[in-house]
Amino acid sequence: MATVHFSNEQKDVVAADGANLRLKALENGIDIYKIYGKLMNCGGYGQCGTCLVEIVEGAENLSPRTPAEVSRLKRKPDTYRLACQVLVNGEVTVKTKPA
Predict the structure, then answer these.
(1) 67-97 pLDDT, tens per residue?
(2) Where are the beta strands (DSSP E) in 7-91?
(3) Cα separation of 71 and 88, whole Å?
(4) Is residue 68 classed exposed, middle or buried when 0-12, 13-18 and 19+ CB atoms within 10 A define those classes?
(5) Rounded-to-integer distance, Cα 18 and Cα 11, Å
């Protein structure tokens, strides 16, 4: 079990190893989408890029970037990830709705 700390919301969420970051956020009332994303997200398939988050700490405890992330995040910092593509395997601190 791991704890995901959402820094903007000051909320900690317990996640089983291998849990999907987007699903854990949504299950616990964490709003990861900006206005456009709320209306036009792909439902977690890595196609739209609207579930963008910044990993503040614990990036080593996450799954590697998927091909969808490599494609969508070419011009973003390495700390940016698509929540729908991330599997949590340890303690991590996440900033929702970066820049």
Answers:
(1) 999 999 999 999 999 999 999 999 999 999 9
(2) 11-15, 19-20, 52-57, 80-82, 87-88
(3) 21
(4) middle
(5) 20
Residue 6 to residue 87: CA distance in whole angstroms: 15
Query: Which pair of tokens denotes residue 7?
Result: 């820094």
pLDDT at 36: 86
Contact between residue 50 and residue 37 where contact means Cβ atoms under 8 Å apart: yes
**Within 10 Å of residue 55's Cβ, how many Cβ atoms?**
21
Q: Which residues contact 24 (CB under 8 A, 6 or more apart)?
A: 4, 13, 15, 88
Per-residue pLDDT, 64: 97
Q: What span, in angstroms and rounded, lies between the C-alpha atoms of 46 and 70? A: 10
pLDDT digits 0-9 by tens, 37-50: 988 999 999 999 99
Q: Per-residue confidence at 59, pLDDT binned at 50, 70, 90? A: very high
